[in-house]
From TrEMBL, chain A:
The lineage of its organism: Eukaryota, Fungi, Fungi incertae sedis, Mucoromycota, Mucoromycotina. Residues 322-462 form the Ku domain. This is ATP-dependent DNA helicase II subunit 2. It is found in: Chromosome, Telomere; Nucleus. Keywords: ATP-binding, Chromosome, DNA damage, DNA recombination, DNA repair, DNA-binding, Helicase, Hydrolase, Nucleotide-binding, Nucleus, Telomere.
From TrEMBL, chain B:
One of its GO terms (molecular function) is telomeric DNA binding. PANTHER family: KU AUTOANTIGEN DNA HELICASE (PTHR12604), X-RAY REPAIR CROSS-COMPLEMENTING PROTEIN 6 (PTHR12604:SF2). Residues 310-457 form the Ku domain. Its main location: nucleus. GO terms for cellular component: chromosome, telomeric region; Ku70:Ku80 complex. This is ATP-dependent DNA helicase II subunit 1. CDD domains: KU70 (cd00788), vWA_ku (cd01458). One of its GO terms (biological process) is double-strand break repair via nonhomologous end joining. The lineage of its organism: Eukaryota, Fungi, Fungi incertae sedis, Mucoromycota, Mucoromycotina. Belongs to the ku70 family. It is found in: Chromosome, Telomere; Nucleus. Transmembrane segments: none annotated. Keywords: ATP-binding, Chromosome, DNA damage, DNA recombination, DNA repair, DNA-binding, Helicase, Hydrolase, Nucleotide-binding, Nucleus, Telomere.
Length: 634, 531
């Protein structure tokens, strides 16, 4: 499953890399450094043991590399910062803290660095299955010994090493764009670029990308690639005669912010005493979780409602709990709640509770897409693609089904079990097309137990007490002015054409929680006193409507404020009404609830007194609140 | 040291949760117990079968059994009571005639479910011998009085099942007092859900008595009626529909969040979010220990120790770190909270897009939310919301918005789909008016499409599939009510039989395809294009 990777970054540190190219703000060298930091940072965060890297600097004062050790006088001024290994924060620090090259620094032959990189990869990977890649960041301003080029090329091809050349000021075809007065330098550049172009086109695996482009990408937001792993391998079945072998892959899946672990600060304070701090035991700061079991205090047991109002008594409960006997883990048994009672279940009985199922995806029928309302879609989505058995038949069959569903605007309802004895799910399959791929998209839909169809009052008409139905001239109904202005507003705030571009497509929105946490982690790892990063401007822009739209709607927005006349209600008042509800209710109930005979007496004189008994008119707020619904107790 | 142990035990909740779920947490909102008292008319009219042969009273007991079962698994702390009226025998604390409290208000247990089950199955010995039916007149107000007496919990509802639409029609005094009693109930925060049933030759007529009972506000005549009445429109009067209608009402309508919605930078209204869809799981088991015949619930106490010093830790002794390539990136608890916090809870409209821009794969959260105006925070919310809903709907658009539901929850980008109210032919509300809110995936959440070679599809294949699809088309909206979750059914049924010590029953799996129909449909079309 694990996709092993070996990547060597080669950064040309020669003096020519200090050049700031036209239109750029920083030197090519700095751009190279940032590209490497971005790539390494991502790998360090992901913490994959099988993702190995090394950074080779070409053009260093000193020489420190494995080939130079073996062959004296060669591979000079090349430094490998580490062997090929899982990167650590140190690699990042070394790259980020290395000062730019001085003009007096020696230059190295970048071809030597490339040979070194190949050698490092082959030494480590041997013939094991690795994705092998060299990322080479250079300009073409220094003389290169091209005599070995063909050999180097063959070594890469044979060993399936891909070369990504990030060329400073290369254009797409590998030719220089720079206007140079120095004919000698121009000649070197042209020669080098021609050769590089030849190397890169020598194998489909290789790529030439402009360094500036790579730099912009490194600074920006991008989606991490995730290895597709099938979550279901089985069949999609109409009937015995018509089924296809399929693999199912996650297509949307929530990426969560990096989760942090607990760190004990006790060693810093307690172990500060001289004799302990000198002891050989290294301090780990680790936190151990200690689990114990005890009889649940009575107040919290079972189906009583009491714990709701008992937040204030929490300490008391905890104290009482300590007095309760603890229970040994081996004495624990399972019980399932069944209303008021707990039903103890033995291991044998537990089997009875589970439905036995076999993995399958069975088609139940078809619905027009509109007949499965979009809000029924539950959870992440999955792609169904052809599996390995009869792959061509499966691929073509499913593509035909996708095509057919698309043409008819229909979805399939399926029953899906992803592994042995898993609970069956119901889901819909919709057609999914991307590039040349035609396949199916799965998304779960609800069972009856998952569905609670509440009723809500109409919003376009009001039933009056008299039984009359009104559709206008009521504070709860919009006027024609309101409708017109809102219509205009919806038209003006069109996100499909904001300076010619669609805004806020899901594919362009990034998760602020994930990105800010990652940024903070990297900053803190490299600098203990780093401040928490501010929200990136791009993420900030996701929180508000585009200013272009707001600006052009400014007058309308003003008018709407006056037309709709929405007033915030003083919430303190509300609190009184609800917070005090319980006590009030009780006193009210006592006062109100007289035995039925008393009411009968009362009622016999009702005609005379009724008007007088009416409570004073309630303020409007309360009227509306009682007008609304019963769930307002939260 | 010893008090440190208790301290850390008590404070363990103050440690930050490592695996805090970003999904909107709805648990809190469902902890407030609901309570329902079934008030069931047992007079002889309720024993007359309808033209389908359904006996209303028996169906009413089925409703009780179904709600008891549902609550037993889904809302253990909810309480149910059953009061029968129009009975021959009486059993109630006030010794009123013709009222029989079958089950006091309490959480369901296996015994009660079995009792309701027996009555529902028409094992009527108990009913005949102990309860009986009576047509003598007695004050209906007593029913309400006893109902109110039974309640204790926060949410109080009375499910009134009857086919008498005009009680006390010849006794204005009793009629008046019953109405008064019903008003008292309303004032005390109790809500009546009326399930009025037709009689074979007579449709239930709300206007005779119950309309007045449900219109309880003493305000002037121009006051709008609330959803008390509109919910009555969800009734069909058919005995066979009763079970479904009771099921639809069994979950009390509680919102998940109540936040402001910013429509323009200057115009904000109040809204509420509801989970109309939410996956119902089997529920996790509880740890218990048995000593003799006594079962005792066990709780897990989690505390933390410093590995270096072996001391218990208070939350002030702890920082949080991420191992970044051999170097811990350290944060204080406050800093972590700061990193998790983005803004005050709100929903902000960012703009509008064509409805077609929302793709099927733009789905990520475990379910959608329903958004409805909340007049209680901002006066004018309803009209403003209604205008927005109509405008978005008329232009066949959706709204894109930025959502934070709680102070500590991560922001989401959402799509708001307008939904206009839809009533069935019988006046039952099928879809309520409001926005359906879909949480959108971020770019981070969207994976790459695995590589695949291009398929070769023939016209014959498409034709064959088109034919099969036509034959297997379901021509109505997908109805979740048609499919019970077989795993849950199995769990419920097995647990019930174990607890009552009965043999286990097989369950019906609604989700197994009707293979006969499918095979027949497929047999009509040549499969050769797929060989």
């Amino acid at each position: 499953m694990a996709n092993k990777k070996a990547t060597v970054f080669i950064l040309n540190c020669g003096p020519s890399m200090n050049l700031i190219y036209p239109g750029q703000e920083v030197s090519a060298y700095k751009q190279g450094v940032d590209v490497i930091i971005d790539a390494l940072g991502e790998k360090v965060l992901a913490n994959r043991k099988t993702d190995l890297t090394s950074v080779v600097l070409s053009g260093t004062q000193k020489t420190d590399n494995s080939l130079a050790e073996k062959t004296e006088g060669q591979y000079l001024h090349i430094t490998s910062l580490s062997p090929l290994q899982q990167p650590t924060y140190k690699d990042l620090q070394m790259v980020s803290e290395r000062p730019p090259t001085a003009p007096t620094d020696p230059t190295a032959d970048i071809m030597d660095a490339l040979i070194l990189a190949i050698d490092m990869i082959m030494n480590k990977c041997k013939h094991l299955k690795y994705t092998k890649q060299i990322v080479l960041i250079t300009d073409a301003a220094e003389p290169i010994d091209w005599r070995d080029a063909i050999e180097v090329q063959e070594m890469m091809n044979q060993n399936e090493i891909s070369l990504v050349l990030l060329g400073a000021d290369f254009d797409g075809s590998g030719l220089t764009k720079m206007e140079d007065n120095d004919p000698e330098l121009t000649a070197i550049r042209e020669l080098n670029q021609k050769h590089w172009a030849h190397v890169v086109t020598g194998d489909a695996r290789h790529k030439l990308i402009g360094l500036q482009e790579a730099y912009t990408m490194a600074l920006g937001f991008k989606v991490k690639e995730v290895m597709p792993v099938a979550s279901y391998r089985g069949h999609l079945t109409f009937s015995e005669g018509l089924e296809w072998n399929v693999n199912m892959f996650s297509y949307t899946k929530p990426v969560r912010a990096a989760s942090l672990k607990k760190w004990s600060t006790l060693p810093d304070t307690i172990l500060d005493e001289p004799e302990t701090s000198s002891s050989a035991q290294p301090v780990t700061h680790q936190v151990k979780m200690v689990r114990s079991f005890r009889i649940k205090p009575k107040e919290q047991t079972g189906a009583q409602e009491e714990n709701v109002d008992r937040l204030d008594d929490l300490d008391l409960l905890a104290e009482a709990g300590d007095a309760l006997p603890s229970v040994d883990e081996s004495a624990l048994e399972k019980a399932y709640p069944f209303g008021k009672v707990l039903v103890m279940i033995t291991a044998d009985e537990e089997k009875l509770l589970k439905l036995e199922t076999t993995p399958s995806m069975l088609i139940l029928g078809f619905y027009t897409a509109a007949n499965v309302p979009r809000h029924f879609y539950m959870g992440p989505t999955y792609l169904l693609m052809a599996g390995k058995i009869d792959a061509t038949k499966a691929r073509d069959g499913m593509a035909a089904l996708a095509q057919s569903l698309y043409e008819k605007d229909v979805v399939a309802l399926v029953r899906f079990v992803n592994r042995v004895d898993a609970s069956p799910k119901l889901g819909v399959l919709s057609p999914f097309f991307e590039g040349g791929v035609r396949c199916l998209l799965f998304c779960q839909v609800p069972f009856s137990e998952d569905y609670r169809p509440f009723n809500f009052s109409s919003l376009d008409k009001i039933k009056m007490k008299s039984g009359k139905v009104v559709t206008e001239n009521h504070p709860l109904l919009p006027t024609q002015d309101m409708k017109d202005q809102m219509n205009q507003f919806v038209r003006k705030m069109d996100l499909m054409d904001v300076d010619g571009e669609e805004m806020f497509a899901p594919e362009d929105n990034f998760n602020p929680a994930v990105w800010r946490m990652n940024q903070a982690i990297m900053a803190r790892a490299l600098n203990d006193s780093a401040n928490l990063p501010a929200l990136h401007p791009r993420l900030q822009s996701q929180t508000k409507p585009p200013s272009a739209l707001v600006d052009r709607s400014a007058a309308l927005i003003k008018t709407m404020t006056n037309t709709f006349q929405v007033k915030k209600i003083n919430t303190d008042k509300k609190r009184t009404r609800y917070g005090a509800g319980k006590g009030q209710e009780e006193s009210r109930s006592a006062a109100h609830l007289q035995p039925i005979d008393a009411i009968l007496v009362q009622k016999s004189t009702a005609a005379a007194t009724e008007a007088g008994q009416e409570p004073a008119k309630r303020p409007k707020v309360e009227l509306l609140s009682s007008w609304f619904d019963e769930e307002d107790l939260m | 040291m010893s008090n440190l142990i208790s301290l850390s035990g008590a404070q363990s909740s103050q440690f930050l949760d490592e695996e805090e779920d970003d999904e909107l947490n709805v648990e809190d909102f469902f902890e407030k117990p609901d309570s329902i008292v079934f008030a069931i008319d047992c007079s002889s009219k309720m024993l007359v079968p309808d033209d389908q042969g359904n006996i209303p009273l028996q169906i009413a007991f089925q409703c009780v059994q179904s709600v008891l079962l549902n609550k037993a698994f889904n809302n253990r702390s909810d309480m149910i009571g059953v009061l029968l009226y129009g009975t021959k025998q009486a059993m109630n604390p006030s010794n009123y005639d013709h009222i029989y409290i079958l089950q006091t208000l309490d959480s369901p247990d296996p015994g009660r479910i079995k009792a309701a089950d027996d009555l529902a199955k028409g094992n009527n010995d108990r009913f005949r011998d102990e309860i009986g039916s009576s047509d003598e007149e007695f004050p209906l107000g007593n029913v309400f009085w006893l109902c109110s007496d039974m309640f204790a919990a926060a949410f109080k509802r009375i499910f009134l099942i009857t086919n008498e639409d005009n009680p006390h029609k010849d006794n204005p005094s009793l009629r008046g007092s019953s109405l008064q009693r019903a008003k008292d109930l309303w004032d005390m925060g109790m809500r009546v859900e009326l399930f009025g049933l037709d009689q074979p030759d007579h449709s239930f007529d709300y206007s005779l008595f119950y309309k007045e009972m449900m219109m309880l506000d003493n305000e002037n005549d121009d006051v709008a009626l609330d959803s008390r009445i509109s919910s009555q429109s969800a009734m069909t009067g058919k005995v066979e529909d009763l079970l479904n209608q009771v099921r639809r009402k069994q979950a009390s309508k509680r919102s998940n969040f109540s936040i402001p919605m910013h429509i323009t930078p200057e115009l904000s209204i109040g809204i509420r979010g509801y989970s109309i869809i939410m996956e119902q799981g089997r529920g996790s088991y509880t740890k218990v220990t048995s000593s003799g015949s006594m079962l005792q619930e066990v709780e897990t106490v989690t505390s933390y120790k410093c590995a270096d010093t072996d001391q218990f830790l208070a939350d002030t002794d702890v920082k949080y770190f991420y191992p970044f390539g051999g170097k811990p990136a350290l944060f204080t608890k406050d800093e972590v909270l700061q990193l998790r916090r983005f803004d005050e809870p709100h929903l902000r409209i960012l703009g509008f897009k064509p409805r077609s821009s929302l793709q099927p794969h733009h789905n990520i959260a475990s379910h959608s939310y329903f958004i409805y105006p909340n007049e209680m925070e901002y006066e004018g919310s309803t009209r403003t919301f209604a205008a927005l809903l109509e405008a978005v709907k008329d232009q066949d658009k959706i709204a894109i918005a930025y959502l934070i539901t709680r102070r500590t929850s991560a922001p989401s980008m959402v799509a708001l789909l307008p939904q206009t109210e839809e009533l069935g032919a019988d006046g039952v509300q099928i879809l309520p008016p409001g926005f359906q809110m879909i949480i959108l995936p971020y770019a981070d959440d969207i994976r790459q499409v695995p590589p695949s070679s291009e398929a070769e599809v023939t016209g014959e294949q498409i034709d064959a599939l088109n034919g099969i699809i036509d034959d297997l088309m379901v021509d109505h909206r997908y109805d979740p009510m048609a499919y019970k979750n077989p795993s849950l059914q199995r769990h419920y049924s097995a647990l019930q039989s174990i607890s009552l010590d009965e043999p286990s029953k097989d369950i019906v799996d609604d989700t197994i395809p009707n293979q006969d129909i499918i095979d027949k449909a497929i047999a009509c079309h040549s499969l050769s294009p797929f060989q």
